[in-house]
Write a structure and sequence with these properties.
Number of strands: 7
Radius of gyration: 24 Å
CATH architecture: 2-Layer Sandwich
Number of domains: 1
Strand order of the largest sheet: 2-3-5
Helix content: 10-25%
Number of helices: 4
Bound molecules: iron/sulfur cluster
Mean pLDDT: 85
Low-confidence stretches: 144-150
């Protein structure tokens, strides 16, 4: 009995340290690690492809008016599968390296995006404008809450 314990202790000593010092020291995940999703609002054009493939139903989409599509990523349910990143045609979604996501604020667990959509003059359905310039032709060249005044 004592002998087997001693042998175990020797094996452990020989193996050296097998655990990471985290959280006492910072830990960098491997490059292919899939952490919290990030979404680039300048790239997303509201196609809804990510919502179609998300197995966890994380991504909710609705139109508030003819020009505005709202995307809500309720990422507390995210399984980090990476499907949304794979299918996004604009590479707007990225699986970041962030894994320390604990929070006591529910609003931290939602990413909300408002995407400007141009409505078709004939059928009224939303479609994404092809360029930022087209967007400005409709929404104006000045933005902000001062009504365009400097
Ligand atoms: S990583 Fe997977 S579960 Fe998470 S939002 Fe993307 S598709 Fe949905
Ligand atoms: S994030 Fe990508 S896939 Fe999802 S709606 Fe935007 S452009 Fe489409």
């Amino acid at each position: 009995m004592l002998l087997s314990k001693l042998r175990e202790a020797l094996i452990c000593l020989k193996a050296g340290r097998v655990t990471l010092p985290y959280p006492s020291a910072p830990h960098d995940p491997s490059p292919r690690f899939r952490g919290k999703i990030t979404v680039d609002p300048d790239r997303c054009f509201g196609c809804g492809g990510c919502a179609n493939v998300c197995p966890a139903g994380v991504i909710l989409i609705h139109d508030t008016d003819q020009h505005t599509r709202v995307l809500e990523f309720q990422w507390r349910r995210c399984t980090y599968c990476g499907r949304c990143e794979e299918v996004c045609p604009e590479q707007a979604i990225h699986m970041s390296q962030q894994f320390e996501t604990a929070t006591d604020r529910p609003e931290d667990l939602v990413i909300r995006l408002e995407v400007f959509m141009g409505p078709c003059q004939r059928c009224g359905r939303c479609f994404p404008p092809p360029t930022p310039l087209d967007r400005m032709m409709v929404s104006g060249f000045r933005s902000g809450g001062n009504g365009g005044r400097q």
